[in-house]
Amino acid sequence: MDTSPARTVPGAQSVARAAALLRLVTAAGDEGLTVADLARRADLTRPTTHRLLTALRHEGLVDQDERTGRWMPGPELYLMGTVAASRYDITAIARDIVRSLAVRTEESAFLSVRRGDETVCLIREDGAFPIRSFVLSEGVRFPLGVASAGLAILAFLPPHDVDAYFERHPELAERHGAAHAEPRLRARLRETHARGYALNPGLIVAGSYGIGAAVFTRSGHPQWALSLTGVDFRFSPDRIPELGRTLLAHAHQLTTRVAAGTR
């Protein structure tokens, strides 16, 4: 996420920390996370983490299991989500397209959405092929440019937005490997833009390939992405163009639905 406002806006650091905890709690789902887990993943001290969680619980945004002590999403998040869904959620019009993509290719198919400087997986549909990649599932987040969905979205953002993204995130190579250094990532962005879809040849998990295609808003902004993942031998040089054409056709179909406002 863009953390630059935290340096200038009073109170922004606390908001950013609370938001980070909310993302971690929601990603954990029904299993929840302990205070220690949350503190470690958010890079906060345990007292700070507990103080923020207590404040969030007071507002109904998180809840704590009395038996296990784990923290989980609160009821207020559900209410907020139902209001926001009418504007941001396209899962209702996308699910059959994602399912069709999985059936056509026999690979695992996904819908992801852009949230700030990340993508979040919204839908997963497994194909018929028995060997699968489990890099991605509902609720999993990746920085833009790391997974194929985020690479596809980043490639079709305006150039000034791409430049600003790299300025905000000089740590990509350190956190995700040398393949995500800015020069190499920019080269993949150019390839993605020219090809129409992104290719991730095992850069997150060795042997797990992914391809992604952007889905656009009515105004032509890349806000979502469809993607496929599978084991490397299923993504041979001869098969990738076929998968890419199928992926782009489904992405175009979903973009058309979004533009038409189909529900």
In short:
The chain is an alpha+beta fold and 263 residues long. It has helices spanning 12-28, 35-42, 46-58, 75-88, 91-105, 148-155, 159-168, 172-176, 182-195, 240-260; strands at 62-64, 71-73, 108-115, 118-125, 141-143, 198-201, 208-216, 222-231.
Question: Over all CA atoms, what is the radius of gyration?
Answer: 19 Å
Q: Sketch the major β-sheet.
A: 6 strands, antiparallel
DSSP summary, beta strand count: 8
Low-confidence stretches: 1-7
User: Alpha-carbon distance between the termini?
Assistant: 30 Å
- State mean pLDDT (0 to 100 scale): 87
Helix content: 40-55%
Coarse shape: globular
Strand order of the largest sheet: 5-4-3-8-7-6
Q: Which structural class matches the secondary elements?
A: alpha+beta
Order of helices and strands: HHHEEHHEEEHHHHEEEH
Structure annotation, total helices: 10
Beta-strand portion reads 15-25%
Explain what you see:
48% of the residues lie in helices and 18% in strands. With 263 residues, the protein is an alpha+beta fold. Helix 1 (12-28) packs across helix 3 (46-58), helix 5 packs antiparallel against helix 10 and helix 6 (148-155) packs across helix 9 (182-195). It is globular, with a radius of gyration of 19 Å. It starts with 11 loop residues before the first helix and ends with a helix.
